[in-house]
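Internal tracking record. Fields below are filled automatically when a chain is submitted to the structure queue. Please do not edit lines marked as system-generated. If the sequence contains nonstandard residues, flag them in the REMARKS field before resubmitting.
Queue: standard
Priority: normal
Entity type: single polypeptide chain
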Amino acid sequence: MNTTTATAPTDTSGRPVRLGLRENWLQFTLLVIVNVAVGGLVGLERTTVPLIGSDVFGLTSDLAVFSFIIAFGLTKALTNLAAGALTGRFRRKQLLLAGWLLGIPVPFVLAWAPSWEWIVGANVLLGLNQGLAWSMTVNMKIDLVGPARRGLATGLNEAAGYTAVGVTALLTGYLATGYGLRPLPELIGAVFVVAGLALALIVRDTAAHVALELAHHAKPVPSDENTGLAATFARTSWRHRSLRGASQAGLVNNLNDGLTWGVFPLLFTDHGLGLAAVGLIKGLYPILWGIGQISTGHLADRIGRKPLIVTGMLVQAGGFVLALALLDHPLLAGILSAVALGLGTAMVYPALIASVSDHAHPAWRANALGTYRFWRDIGYAAGALVAGVLADALGLNATIIAAAALTAASGLLAARWITEHRPEAR
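SYSTEM-GENERATED OUTPUT FOLLOWS
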């Protein structure tokens, strides 16, 4: 209605704002492209960096090789948590730009690092970049579309990012086959940095959209409900049953990703596969994870979040089983495992973010998403740590068995704790 438009807050250009994907398609599209660049930057590492550790720098401990993932995961998790609080002091666009400025050195350090410590340091910067840039693209898309299309919005956002992760992993594997592990495969990251920074300068901030949703939200913030970071962290981590269920599922989901990031290149090269084949496996997983979220995000808006979350975790557990059951045929094992892991993660990822958004009031939603993303991305570090310790002590196969059991258990916990709560669109 025209009255809604007339009384709506205005954006930085003085134009009245509306919520909705159709109403904000241009800004939404720009943010999708930004997240392609965000995903592409982290995709540089998926195929080559574990092998750089073992083949270039001569690391013999799996835990030492996986240390770059631990550095990345810890930094990204803490940055996600801080990003929610920082949205109270800075505009989302400012934080998006800051993330890209921090990411500028990453491809060049990966290409020419003189020691492994430099690689680990680059992953601290990469974690800062991903924590700020990816968090802001998620928050800004959710701001634009409003409650009715959260699943679709998060699905498109994550689809763009993780498809770019997969395509870049595939591309770096093929480049490494022809030109070596460094520097050419890593230098394609310069394209992502330039594109991401340029588009972040163009996109408009979404503070007015948050104000509009707050003005029309069905329920005011309860007087006894603290919207600060500390209170929201406790609420999202354990006090709220559904948010607790989403947080633990997110952690285990990215534990799987961190584990496969480090383990799969070593496992399948040990069984005779070359860099191109490993690149195919490492690329297929996030490509399916990415593309699949376009439909699963929309499906989460239609059938609910919980069915996709629970089913997706169990499908991921089956992917690990396939990796070991068919290991005598390593390429087949890798491809089928990647398909199951990719499709399972595609079910889980947008549904979890949408579920957290459903249960969080707009006044503390950024902090809730920051807390959820903290627990989710601490899974990278946990996965690399668990994988390193188990692989050094018991071997790579035992690590995959442990991941399958943990993922299945997480799916059952999600089934017990998570409930549906989708606010009506306004």
